[in-house]
Amino acid sequence: MAVNDDESPMNPILEETFYILSKKNCVYKVKLLKVGICLQKERNGLLTSEIVLLDDIIGSRCMRSKRRASDNCVCGPTSNFKSDPQVVDLNSLDGDENDISAYLYIYAYILKNFKMKSGKKRERMTITLRFRSYDRFEDNMREAQKWRNALSHLILMRRAASQLLDLDEKFLHSPRSSSINKLLIILNPRSGMCKARDIYQQKFVPLLMEADIPFDLHVTRFHNDARQLIRSSNLYQWQRGIIVMGGDGIMYEILNGIMERLDWHRALENLTLGIIPCGSGNGLAKSISYSCNEPFDENPVLVSSLNILCGIKAPLDLMRFESKSKTVFSFLSVGWGLIADIDIESERLRVLGSPRFTIWSLARIIGLRKNEGRLSFLRISDEKLQGKVHRENLTATLTRSFSDCLTDFSSPLSSYRSLNQLDSLNLETKERLDHSRRDSFHSLCSRKSTYLSAHESDYLSLSDDCNNSNTQMFGPPSQIPALTQPVPPHWTVYEGEFVMVHAVSVSHIAADCLIAPDAKMSDSVIWLIVIRAGISRTHLFQCLIGLSSGAHVNVPGVEVIPVQAFRLEPKSTGSHIVVDGELLDYEPFQVEIVPGIASVYSRQGQEK
Ligand SMILES: Nc1ncnc2c1ncn2[C@@H]1O[C@H](COP(=O)(O)OP(=O)(O)OP(=O)(O)O)[C@@H](O)[C@H]1O
Q1: What is the number of other CB atoms lying within 10 angstroms of the CB of residue 125?
Q2: How much distance in Å is there from the Cα of 335 to the middle of ligand 1?
Q3: 3-state secondary structure of 4
Q4: How far is the CA of 246 from the centre of ligand 1 (A)?
Q5: How far, in Å, are 102, 262, 327, 332, 521 from residue 319 at the CA level?
Q6: What does the pLDDT read at residue 261?
């Protein structure tokens, strides 16, 4: 075995030759590189090689041979010993003491061309390396562990680098079971078609185990449960981040729960959010995959899970919504008119899942509403927009190259001051949490009685004393004139009847609705989609059909306006005001962009 400390990404860190038992004259040279694993095959003098990228590898595991049943001979007809090795965990009692081999399993999810369509999809690939050069199992296992440790170190460095953490102080030197290594998963069993539990158990937990990431689970029990948990817990115990297994509604609760904390800024700076799509819309999950060119539609849960597990911390713009009665923060959309009405009124068809939106769209076109109002906005000029998009691309490139070269650059939040004085407050919250009740997963009105449990992971339930309704919204203050003041003279004003005004900060408001094709996750732009009354039904129909591909932006009567802020004063009733799917009071409101203040797990990928 060769070990090389050379800094070049293509120089092997470890190198070993492996043979394939079933194929004569076939030799594999396997090299662990900084960029991944190189498999170099030599057969009958012919050399081929393939690199499995580090970005596609989520973890590895050392195993040993499984003890064969006494009546099962290697050469007998029931044996499948020759093809697939039968392996067990290292501390399993089923280990075969007579086999000195040690196995290393490496789990990767690689991009493959999808033959039937002209797209791509992610597929699981397991690389199995069998170590048996030494006479003793312990020595072979030491070799396998050496490979595993080196690979784990590379993966950890990539994860830690992407989260802008101090490698020494955070993950690398902390025990695996330490709380800072954990994710918090918040699961809404009532999301979409109520499949979140099954998805958690059958799809997400196996991936977390392959990636060797411990986690805590909280299952929501009622509306705003997630919001209360976030508002009143010591969030710094989950430094790996918070993962939603649900829809955009739960993410909205989490973000607003954070903004209701005095230490909202520190919490946003420390926590990376992720989402596994289990809801009916899943706009954020799709927008994240779209931004890094990942093939979401083929397997939304797998792709979103990998975005998290191979994740890069990517900045996310928020919108600050303010009305007379409320201030909230949105990561997705603020709507008035047609789409908002469809969102709210189709709620009665929730059991159908996402088709509820299509069905209700048809109903709403037939009974089209016109809403009178006044829309004022601060448009972003074309030159400014070009500059913003360029900066967004630069940030993405920097984020990506950061994970490659491990050099330093500033977080998008670095301009905010850190609120160290709030440490005492967090201590208080921690003490409260330490005394809180802990339930098992299946005590939470569960439909099932057994759940896959992972080593060092906990199932949490909120203690009842967290249900405090006296809350105050903090978060970044407004930068625009108050609602009671007139809008500045350089703002543009549209007055009259509208079919809809819909504002978004990401590309998709649902997995099949590309409402703002040019939007990026942190371009500092609110994309206003405005349809004024007078649009023909044919064009409106074309617009709704075009939403799935983004073609609606070219339909006459549909305006897409990049703005920094806007104000809407409804003058007629009958419609709805909806923020990220939540129905708010029907009253004048204004919205402004808060650039890159939150962060989500994304993936290193090509720009779309
Ligand atoms: N145990 C529960 N029982 C009933 N409602 C719940 C429960 N837990 C959470 N909720 C509420 O369910 C609502 C919908 O949740 P979520 O966003 O996860 O799914 P969705 O609406 O189907 O998806 P999307 O928002 O993507 O359309 C949220 O407002 C949340 O507060």
Answers
A1: 14
A2: 19
A3: coil
A4: 7
A5: 53, 19, 11, 8, 12
A6: 96
